Amino acid sequence: MSKGYAVVLGLNHVDPVHYDGWDGELAQPENDARAICEIASKRGFKSKIILGNNVTRLNVIYSVREAAQELESGDIFFFYYSGHGGQLPDMDGDEEDGMDETWCLYDGELIDDELRLLWSEFKEGVRILVLSDSCHSGTITKASVEEPAPENCVKKAMPMEYVRKTYFKNKSFYDNLARELMDKGANEKEVKAGVLLISGCQDEQSSYAFTFDENSAFTTALLQVLEEYPSADYSEFHKKIVDKLDKRLRGKQKPNLYPTEQCDLAFLEQNFLTI
User: Fold this and answer.
1) Going from the N-terminus, what domains does the chain have, and what CATH number goes with each?
2) Whether the Cβ atoms of residue 124 and residue 101 lie closer than 8 Å to each other
C-alpha cells in the first residue's frame, strides 16, 4: 500500500541577525502551513509541520532526507513552503540571469540547487509534489521587487537591498556552500523521482498576501479550489487557482505548473494529494 509523507513549512519572520537587519515580517505563512498540514493529515499523510524559528536549514534538510529514506516506489512526498523568496549569486552557471533562487528560511537561505540534490536522494517511482507560496524565481527581485504591491497587499520577496546585504554579510558561508554544491555536481545529479512543482507566481511576477486575509493569496485560492472542486486533477486544480487569483489580482500573480521529465501523465491526472 502506498504511503504519503508531508513536510510543511511556514514562517512569519526570519532572523534579522543573518539577514542584516531584515526580519521579513509577514502575517499569513504560519496560518498557511497549519491549514495545509491539516488537509494533508486528513488525507492520510504522515505529516510534519515546521513553523517560525524552527524552519532552519538543518531542520528542513534533515526532514526531507528522512522522507527520502522512508519512501519507496509508488509513495508520494508533499513539500509545502510559505514565506519569502530570495536570490544569491549563481556560482555554477546554470542560471541565465546569474542568480540562484532561494527560500528564505529562518537562519539562512535554501538554494534551488540544494533542493535538486535532495530530490536525487529519492527512489525511482516516488512522486514529489512541491507547493511554493513565495516569490521563488530567477527574475523576481530584478524585474518586479521594487514595483509597488497592489492595494492592501504585501509582497513575499526579499527586498533587493537585503538580497545584497545578506549575501555580503554571509559571503564566506554562501560561497563555501556554492562550491560544495558544485563539487557534488548538484545541477547534474540524476533525479529519478517524478517532481511536480506548483509555484505561487510566474518568474516575472510576485506572490502576494492581502493584509486582511488569514492566508496568503495563493494558499487562499488553493483552499477555495479544494473545497469547490475536490476531484480536480493537478492540471485542472492549477487552472482553477489561476482563475481565482486572476479575479483578485488582475493578472499580477499567475501560479506556475512545472512537471519534470520524470513526472508521468498518471501523476498529473491524479486528484490533489492522492496517496
Assistant:
1) 4-268 (3.40.50.1460)
2) no
Which residues on neighbouring strands pair with residue 35, listed in sequence order?
none
Contacts of 50 (CB under 8 A, 6+ apart): 7, 8, 9, 10, 33, 59, 60, 63
Q: What's the mean pLDDT in 121-144?
A: 76
Instruction: Answer whether 126's CB lies under 8 Å from 76's CB.
Output: yes
pTM of the predicted structure, to 2 decimals = 0.94
Strands 99-105, 76-82: pairing is unpaired
CA distance 42 to 61: 25
Angle between helices 57-70 and 112-119 (to 10 degrees): 20
Per-residue pLDDT of 136-185, as tens digits, reads: 643 333 344 456 788 899 999 999 899 999 999 999 999 999 999 999 98
Q: For strand 76-82 and strand 85-89, is the pairing parallel, antiparallel, or unpaired? A: unpaired
Kindly give, in sequence order, each residue whose CB lies less than 8 Å from that of residue 151, ignoring residues fewer than 6 positions away.
Answer: none
